[in-house]
Structure formats: structure tokens, C-alpha cells
Amino acid sequence: PHLESCDRMHTVCLMRCGAEFEKRFQQKHRDEDCPKRQVICQFCELSMLAETESEHSDACPKFPVPCPNKCSKEVTRETLQEHLDSDCLQQSQPCPFANYGCAHTGKKQELAAHLKENQITHMELLCVAVKRSEEARNEKERLAAELTKKLAGIERRIACLEKLYGPQL
Fold it and tell me: Coiled-coil annotation: which residues (predicted)?
């Protein structure tokens, strides 16, 4: 009778994790130590086995992560990209005139100063871009006129051939 109720008797985990312990530690093991116990993520409230909690934390979308730019903000993993794209003042980004030739890349907080200090340079870049655009448009207009002229010549030849040989061509 004493052996059945003895707290010092060895037993195995009821959740089949393979652990062996004295009966008196069964409750503690089940509630705190067993890797097969159910736990709930404190960030996303997903239920999982304790043994998968670390792996889950590495991918949990609600897990707080520090900004990689060290701006002192902590955001959830799922909102990190949004933070970098729109909120982070330490995020490096190209000048809005990059498509026109400006090579400046810097932090968002520096961008206003760059834009103010380089207004003339940016206007010059835009002028060059407008000039190139006009040249490209003129070239396309020239090609269109040339093709229109060739088409008219081909149409005349076809008309002549139809007169000579009839419309069966």
C-alpha cells in the first residue's frame, strides 16, 4: 500500500516525453518542464507544444524585433518592412531623382537637406531628361513619317500591279 502512494517512487511522464522523475515532481514536470506540454505564445496566442516554442518564436509574426537600423524602435516581425519603408528615419534610401541620374543615397532624415541643397543639380538632371525625351520623341516621329512614306509607296505599287494584272493578287 505505501509503494503505490509513495511520493519518492520513480515514474515516467504521462505525456510520453521520456522523462523519469519521482512521483512528487509529476505536477511540476507536467506544468513547467515537459516538452510535450501545451503552451500559448504570449505574442500571437497560438497554442503549441513547448518543444516547438523556440522555433515558433523565430518565425512568429507578432514577435517584437528591434529595428535593424538601430533607430531604437521595436516593432512586430510582421510590421518590420512597413516600418522600414515608411517610418524609420535611419532607413537608407535613394534620392527621388535617382531615375534621372542623382547618385545620392542616405537616411530619410538627411533627404530633406539633400533635396534643398541640390535643387539646381536636380533641375539640371530634369532638363537633361526632358531633352532626351524630346529627342526620343522626335526620332519616333521621324521613323513614323518614314514608315508612312514607305507605306504610301507600297500602296502605289500595289495599285499599279492591280491595274496590270487585276485584283486577283
Answer: 130-164
- Domain with 17, as residue range(s), is 2-36
Note if the pTM is more than 0.85: no
Is the distance from CB of 124 to CB of 105 less than 8 angstroms?
A: no
Specify the amino acid at residue 11.
T
Report residue 131 as a C-alpha cell.
531633352
In a domain, 142, yes or no: no
CATH number at residue 58: 3.30.40.10
Other residues' Cβ atoms within 10 Å of the Cβ of residue 44:
14
9: in domain: yes
Closest CA to 51 of 84, 73, 19, 24: 19
Give a yes or no: residue 107 inside a domain: no
Give the whole-angstrom CA distance, residue 4 versus residue 23.
10
Summarize pLDDT for 129-141 with one digit per residue, the tens. Answer: 999 999 999 999 9
Strand partners, 74: 66
